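Ticket #4471: structure output looks truncated?

Reporter: J.K.
Steps to reproduce: submitted the chain below (86 residues) through the standard prediction queue, then opened the result file.
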Amino acid sequence: REPTLFERGGYTYQENEIINVSRTDGMRITHEGQHRRFMASTRRLREVFAKHFGDQVTAFDGKTFEEVPAESETCPSTRYVICAQK
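Returned output as attached by the reporter:
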C-alpha cells in the first residue's frame, strides 16, 4: 500500500487503495476502492500524550523506526509509533 496524503480544511488525510486477497472458495483478489482516513499529526499526538504522561514522549516512523522530529506533522511512511514514559 502506498498512501497519498492530502489536506482539506487544515486537516491532513491519507488515502489508500485497498486490494484484498480472500481464500474463501479458492483464492480471490478483490479491489475494495480508495478510502480516505483522517490522520492525526504526530505533533498533536505528542501534545495529548505529554498532557497525560509528562514530557517524555517520542514518535518513531512505523516503517523505519527512525525518530520523527518534534516539530513534524507526519512521517514518511504515514504510520507511526508513539512512546511515552510517565
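Triage note (M.O.): checked the attachment and the full C-alpha cell line is present. Residues 3 and 18 are 10 Å apart (CA to CA).
Status: closed, working as intended.
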